[in-house]
């Protein structure tokens, strides 16, 4: 009786092990895909942060230029330049 119980448990264990490696492989693949997606998202976030920092710095630099140009040029000419610089920023953003 005891041997039959052991043999029954052994066959159950063996049959469970036949399916278990595939299940472990699937889990590993899913984890690998999740890690890859996370790395890709982190990379995208990093690019977005760099772009925002560059754009803020660029705007700040242009703002200083605006103040400097206002002292030298007329106000109407200044408005035209602001519009042109704004379009350049917009195109630069679309390109990235």
Automatic annotation (TrEMBL):
Residues 24-53, 67-88 have a biased composition (Low complexity). Residues 13-96 are annotated as: Disordered. Residues 54-66 have a biased composition (Basic residues). This is Uncharacterized protein.
């Amino acid at each position: 009786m005891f041997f039959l119980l052991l043999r029954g448990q052994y066959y159950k264990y063996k049959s469970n092990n036949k399916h278990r490696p595939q299940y472990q492989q699937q889990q590993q693949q899913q984890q690998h895909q999740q890690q890859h997606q996370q790395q890709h998202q982190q990379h995208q976030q990093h690019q977005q942060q760099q772009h925002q920092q560059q754009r803020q710095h660029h705007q700040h630099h242009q703002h200083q230029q605006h103040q400097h140009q206002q002292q030298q040029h007329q106000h109407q000419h200044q408005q035209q330049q602001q519009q042109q610089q704004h379009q350049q920023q917009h195109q630069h953003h679309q390109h990235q």
